[in-house]
């Protein structure tokens, strides 16, 4: 609802930011990559495909639920940006103030980091980063210690949020809201998935551990529904960029739910010989989805296919083996 979040919502944070040494700003421009959507989904896909029982009791269920949680977080971000429709700080607009000591190769990279268009509230990087690293800390519950995982997740999420303010593409309010939304969507996703730590579960399998009976499908479907709401708001407001993001959210949520129906949840880790070509194919579909953003139906089809492939991949080796056995 436009008006609830002011366009000029700074709290004086950029006075502090402007006093920072240039090398600190450049360093945080690199930190922000830790919550780029491509990086987070690649990280989560690798965890989903390759994690063993040494890091989670049910690694496939844990990994798929982490992906679903982050999908919900991005859906909430798309809805929030379309709903509030407030601009980014003036520092996100060109021209970029590129340090003169940066090599030419890095100047273009730095400029791309510190210039951002679209709406600013809440911060998508802060939301996605908080959701991804918190979900990993909660769901990969056999890796390291609880305290170590939670502290690491919190530190990374805060560093990402700080980076968005330091490179002046978000106000402090934007990233604080993003951290809250990210944490909240993880709690909702885990509850929908049946995590016994946030929901009293009647499934006997839950006694085997917090990830043993997880079902990420409801969380994927929630992401699709919220993204549909974001699409309606974006269309009504004429926000073209948010229309594309919401459409991708619908496709990601629906694709995740469909892909999960094709797996049992107890599959072993994906063999490297299967994962490498699958990564090339799904990565190509994902890049194509964004590069063809002007043609929304093509984007939706490409995104859906990519997510179905990512989530269904653990079942592929067994299905190939069964088909080969049937032929023999």
From TrEMBL:
A UniProt-annotated Pfam family: PAP2
Subcellular location field: Cell membrane
Topology of the protein relative to the lipid bilayer: Multi-pass membrane protein
Signal sequence, renumbered to the chain: none
Domain Phosphatidic acid phosphatase type 2/haloperoxidase residue range list: 65-190
Entries under InterPro entries matching the protein: PAP2/HPO (IPR000326), PAP2/HPO_sf (IPR036938)
Parts of the chain that traverse the membrane: 23-50, 62-84, 119-138, 150-167, 173-193, 214-237, 243-263, 270-290, 296-316
GO MF: hydrolase activity
Gene Ontology CC entries for this record: plasma membrane
UniProt keyword terms in alphabetical order: Cell membrane, Hydrolase, Membrane, Transmembrane, Transmembrane helix
Family matches, as PANTHER family: DECAPRENYLPHOSPHORYL-5-PHOSPHORIBOSE PHOSPHATASE RV3807C-RELATED (PTHR14969:SF62), SPHINGOSINE-1-PHOSPHATE PHOSPHOHYDROLASE (PTHR14969)
Name this protein carries in UniProt: Phosphatase PAP2 family protein
Phylogenetic lineage: Archaea, Methanobacteriati, Methanobacteriota, Stenosarchaea group, Halobacteria
């Amino acid at each position: 609802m436009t008006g609830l979040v002011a366009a000029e919502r700074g709290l004086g944070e950029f006075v502090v930011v402007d006093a920072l040494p240039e090398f600190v700003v450049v360093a945080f421009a690199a930190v922000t990559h830790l919550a780029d959507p491509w990086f987070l989904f690649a990280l989560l896909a690798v965890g989903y495909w390759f994690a063993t029982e040494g890091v989670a009791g049910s690694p496939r269920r844990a990994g798929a639920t982490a992906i679903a949680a982050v999908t919900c977080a991005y859906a909430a971000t798309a809805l929030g940006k379309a709903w509030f429709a407030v601009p980014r700080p003036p520092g996100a607009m060109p021209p970029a103030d590129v340090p003169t000591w940066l090599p030419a190769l890095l100047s273009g990279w730095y400029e791309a980091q510190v210039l951002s268009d679209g709406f600013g509230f809440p911060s998508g990087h802060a939301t996605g980063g908080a959701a991804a690293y918190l979900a990993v800390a909660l769901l990969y519950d056999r890796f390291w210690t609880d305290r170590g995982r939670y502290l690491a997740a919190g530190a990374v999420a805060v560093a990402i949020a700080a980076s968005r303010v330091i490179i002046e593409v978000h106000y402090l309010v934007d990233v604080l809201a993003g951290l809250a939304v990210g944490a909240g969507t993880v709690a909702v996703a885990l509850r929908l998935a049946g995590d016994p730590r946030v929901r009293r579960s009647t499934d006997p399998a839950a006694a085997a551990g917090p990830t043993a009976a997880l079902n990420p499908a409801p969380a994927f479907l929630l992401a699709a529904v919220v993204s549909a709401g974001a699409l309606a708001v974006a269309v009504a407001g004429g926000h073209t960029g948010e229309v594309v993001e919401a459409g991708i959210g619908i496709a990601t949520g629906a694709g995740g739910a469909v892909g999960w129906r094709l797996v049992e949840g107890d599959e072993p880790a994906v063999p490297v010989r299967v994962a490498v070509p699958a990564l090339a194919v799904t990565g190509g579909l994902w890049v194509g989805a964004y590069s063809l953003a002007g043609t929304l139906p093509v984007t939706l089809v490409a995104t859906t296919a990519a997510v179905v492939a990512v989530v269904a991949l653990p079942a592929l080796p067994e299905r190939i083996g069964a088909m080969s056995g049937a032929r023999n």
